[in-house]
Design brief:
By secondary structure, the protein is of the alpha+beta class. It is about 25% helix and about 10% strand. The chain contains two helices and two strands. A hairpin with a 4-residue loop joins strand 1 and strand 2. It starts with about 50 loop residues before the first strand and ends with a helix.
């Protein structure tokens, strides 16, 4: 998966700035999940690696952000999403993953409207990605 900050709140899309063609991998958002086949073999755990695509080398690179001892398992923080999203995307749950917030009460109109607007925004992004393929 892509660059992940386990302490960060979700931010607006950030796009790499390169002089490459807009269809290149370097122009993709840098804070969103993506498939990195061999990287997915690294177990989920405490955030001691960062991963990113290096467009100059055409390679996915991991960099240690913690010290490792000989024989210690190297782990990667897949996502900062809550438990429901982790289970849906990865099929497992880890003790470090926080639970998802409870749904709003039926009379919490403001929160419900925010969730609906977010869902609509995400659906539009998904549709845009689909039509760009």
């Amino acid at each position: 998966r892509g660059i992940v900050d386990p302490t960060a709140k979700e931010e607006e899309d950030e796009v790499s700035s390169t002089e490459e063609d807009d269809d290149s991998i370097a122009s993709f958002p840098t804070k969103h999940p993506f498939l990195a086949p061999l990287a997915d073999l690294i177990n989920f755990g405490p955030p001691c690696l960062t991963g990113s695509y290096n467009p100059e080398e055409h390679a996915f690179e991991f960099v240690a952000t913690c010290s490792f001892e000989v024989g210690q398992e190297v782990t990667f923080w897949y996502s900062s999403e809550c438990s429901d999203v982790i289970i849906a995307n990865y099929g497992f749950l880890h003790p470090l993953v926080p639970p998802c917030p409870a749904p709003p009460a039926e009379d919490d109109v403001e929160t419900i409207q925010k969730w609906k607007a977010r869902a609509k925004h995400l659906e539009e992004q998904l549709w845009d990605a689909y039509t760009d393929m």
